[in-house]
Amino acid sequence: QVDNGTGKYRIQGLPRNLWSALATYKWDSGFGVSTGVVVTTDINNNVAGTLVIPSQYTLDVTGFYQANNWFARLAILNATDEENFSPPNSVYGNESILADLPIRAELTVGYKF
Question: How far is CA 5 from CA 13, 26, 108, in A?
Fold first, then answer.
């Protein structure tokens, strides 16, 4: 924990603030779209506060079609291709950072019976 001069302590590996939002719209035809965003403020990733992940955001966009028995969904993750970073699993130590994946797509098709 690092005292930032105000008597408040920062916990390593966690942002001070995290905001998320998700919006979905589906037309009567079965087609729809979802958009989600996650925003984090800077993350102190060591006890001394010298390894800092800057504020960042991730935007995901999904288009889908849903019928009675089946659905299809195409998700574009990190749609704006941001160069984001994450703290590693604390079991292995918080003296490093991990690069998150760049823009990518996931296609899901399912059938209900």
Answer: 19, 49, 49
Q: Is 45 exposed, middle or buried (0-12, 13-18, 19+ CB in 10 A)?
A: buried
Number of C-beta neighbours around residue 33 at 10 A: 13
pLDDT one-digit tens code per residue, 9-59: 777 888 989 999 999 999 999 999 999 999 999 988 877 788 899 999 999
Helix (H, G, I), strand (E, B) or coil at 21: strand
3-state secondary structure of 74: strand
pTM of the full structure = 0.83
